Model the fold of this input.
Amino acid sequence: MTAGADFPRFHAVAAHGLLVAFGEAVDLEVHERVGRLDAALAARPFEGFTEAVPAYASLFVGFDPLRTDHAAVRGALQELMKEGAATTRGGSLHEVLVCYDGDFAPDLAEVAQRSGLSPEAVIAAHLAGDYRVFMYGFAPGYAYLGGVPEAIRLPRKPAAERDRPAGSVLIAGPQCLVTTLPMPTGWWIVGRSPTPILREDEAGRPFLFDVGDSVRFRRVDRAAYEAEERGR
Done:
């Protein structure tokens, strides 16, 4: 089930949080509901509110247990959702460079074989995806993007591989991600990007993307990739 009459669902998280679930799938309509509540909380926070953390289909709402409790927070959130006036904050569009050459794309051939496509058709499909930043998680700057085209959606690999380089462009199911650190992964590596996601020099904005932003990939060759790397 993606969403329906059974949603939203409320789940207590320890003494200081409430998880509001709007569905059970990576779905743009479900995520828009997450975004609307997140925006409403930013505009009209309840007494004791501390933070909101959006995910694919849910929103974690933190609160100070010395100032409020789960029942009161649930009531406040239900009132915000009834009002229905809040809209999601307008997202920005970001261009991310990607090189699909040789060792930068170690899984490209297998993705092509499993998808019944040529490697160039896999690249074309990946570039044509309509990507949205749904959430951050797992490691600093790991922005989980939804929008991988159906033609190249594959389940994760049976086992993770260690020490995959930073900048790897990964896909698994409907999700895409650009790694920021050398990490193990069980996703399919179809390219590598020189576009920096971590922004250590900009106070208050540690990452390139915000949740709700859109991403467009642009293909570059190895020479352009290396020039971009040198220019950092």
About this structure: The mean pLDDT is 91. Residues 156 and 187 are 5 Å apart (CA to CA). The helical segments are 28-43, 70-83, 108-115, 119-128, 222-230.
